[in-house]
Amino acid sequence: MVDHVFTDLTLAALYDRLNSWGPGDDFYLGLVREARSVLDIGCGTGRLLRQARAEGHRGRLTGLDPAAAMLVQARRVRPDVEWVLGDTQVRLWQREFDLVVMTGHAFQELVGDEEIRRCLRAARAALGDGGRFVFETRNPAARAWERWTPDRVHEITAPDGTPVRVWHEVQGAGLHGDRVRFTETYDGPGWPAPQVCHSVLRFLDEESLAGFLAEAGLTVAEQYGDWGRGPLTPASPEIITVARAA
User: Fold this and answer.
1) I need a labelling partner for 200 at 20 to 30 A (CA). Which of 27, 80, 143, 182 fits?
2) Measured between alpha carbons, how far is 114 from 88 in angstroms, rounded to an integer?
């Protein structure tokens, strides 16, 4: 998902219904439970931190997202979490967190080299001694975009009970360099017209990720290919990275 789809409150309200809780959420929630202070970059509706607080997490939980409509959803459910509007440059982070995460493939929305570098430097600055930065990207070798076709329609129910259909379509030949352009379309019987978002995601391989992390003073401590912590192979759907200060 891409943030600018959800500048509209109606679409933001659909986010959790379209992205149901899954193994990836369980993976990150386990990490959050063990940490005293957590920064969630690109937190969206804040589902991860909301769940942690609901379970009784008493530490500092901070969610950061550039989409105001997403944070409206987050604040409505858990006003007792610190929700910050903006990107990683909105504050000067100073070794404040045990854990920094980017979930939901948010890292892939950083398309330019400088965007990636700024985000990783901020994550590094936010980590206290022994802290971890954990995020995931889709493994380009698994070619997930080939399954983003209009015939694969997701049907969900809006908060008002009306049905909504959502589908994706890749633009052009698919992977261009290490980027994929695609559209995400929402439509329903009560909508005046389909709402279409044009988006770009970047697919970095293991070597490229390691290079960017090293530039930011981070090193790969662990890497997995799936949410069961299986080894990273060419067929793995994910590149799940646990990084520490170099």
Assistant:
1) 27
2) 12
Distance CA 49, CA 195 (A): 29
pTM, whole model, 2 decimals?
A: 0.93
For the chain, what is the radius of gyration of the CA atoms? 18
State whether residue 126 is helix, strand or coil.
helix
Whether the Cβ atoms of residue 137 and residue 239 lie closer than 8 Å to each other: yes
Q: Which two tokens stand for residue 38?
A: 């957590």
**CA–CA separation, 2 and 74 (whole Å):** 17
The predicted-structure confidence for 203-220, as pLDDT tens digits, reads as follows: 999 999 999 999 999 999
Helix (H) or strand (E) holding 164: strand 163-176
Q: Quickly tell me which residue has 């990150």 as its tokens.
A: 28
Which pair of tokens denotes residue 176? 């261009």
